[in-house]
Amino acid sequence: MNFKRIEAIKRLNETPQWDIAIIGGGATGLGIAVDAASRGYKAILLEKYDFAKGTSSKSTKLVHGGVRYLANGDVKLVFSALKERGLIFQNAPHVSFVQSFVIPSYSFFNKMKFLIGLKLYDWMAGKLRIGKSRLLNKAEVKEKLPKVKIKGLQGGIQYFDGQFDDARLAINLAQTAAEHGAALLNYADVTAINKSADGNVSGLTFTDQESNISHTISARVVINATGIFVDEILKMDSAAHKNLVRPSQGAHIVIDRKFLGNRDALMIPETSDGRVLFGVPWHDKVLLGTTDTPLDAHQIEPRPLEEEIDFILSTANDYLDGAPTRADIKSIFAGLRPLAAPTHGDGNSTKEISRDHKLIKSDSGLITITGGKWTTYRKMGEETVDLAIQTGQLNPAECKTTHLQLHGYSTDKQAGHWQVYGADLHHIQALMTERPAYAAKIHDNYDFRVAEVVWACQHEMIVKVEDFLARRIRLTILDAQASLEAAPIVAKVMAEQLGKDEHWISQELADYKELVKRYLI
Q: What is the 3-state secondary structure (H, E, C) of 183-194?
């Protein structure tokens, strides 16, 4: 596996012209890189921060067709997403799982309404259906959701959808792209879009933030896949550009599993303000969310608003006995959805903003992809590369990703967090066998080992302590305080592996301490 920064820099210096240059290392950009590289194109991807640092690591962890989109009549989007959900299960079974959801119902009419909708949802999935929705009586709901309030409970509905580890899938996409010949760099800040004399995009300039060296590359096509930051790149292309994206914040709180009960997830389809709220078991914790708050500004590390935290806790209290309080929260996090901005109507209503993706070609030939959702990353990649072939007059090649197994592919089932490594797990186990010191835990309360830090340094392109704790093992969002306690060990091991000094360790720990403040209540 050539997924190393040094290999990417080497490729950079050896390639006079790229077929496709991709800006943005989230779900969309990584999906494009896999598609382009697997078709045989010379592709390079540049990410300003770490892969999936933004929205792509801060989802509700659902691979789903979108039950709520069906309720809004967006049938086309649901059909497409259900197909893509099935393909993720086929191509990356080590990081995707079937999850049972229960909707408790306190009204006979609502129970039947939701059952009809979910039967339609099942039917739309066709041969890629992953479960069969059914009515539950009151006792069955209580058995599946032991903490649910039973006063007025009429029963419920069980349905099945997908769950995944978003940041782990992202790193597997990056590794897959590299295995097919793409060059990928994190901490690579694009500073200019370059054009030929006739005004067409001819490449870009970026700064490698690790070396502080600036590079200018030539590319037949440049793709802007920067999520909530697409407008910043478009303004490099045209100073007169008007914003395309209106961000919407989705906030989550993380609590102990005891507050929900068994393996089943809770789905509340109609909260007091009309939103959908999930309680999802994930990595032995429970995620409660999400909100849908329109914002005028965006940032790489958003923090849940106090009113969002209160709303989630209040809604949980409406449905659960012994519901969590602020003191029970292990971590909080928020992601910004890059929704395509409305052109008319109520600009503050996120229901008026498209959930589907938009593919745009500027007069200069710059391609921009915005909107969309994690589940449809592969389809967005396919459509974007198809347009890139036309735009750059590349030799046509068929899409290969429909049945492309992603790095780590394994159907073996492992206990705990080890599952997400898939086929790489035996390499990590070998490290612990060869060096018993690598089997030491980085925190007494969690089963994360020093060997995982070593592996991530060697094969998962971590640059900062945050990269490992937040996105390679997810401890930052599972238990923010525990992650802070584990940080010194992680920094020490990274320094040994990456050839860093004591000053680097001190700076990294200071940076991480500052970051974690955004995840602590």
A: EEECCEEEEEEE
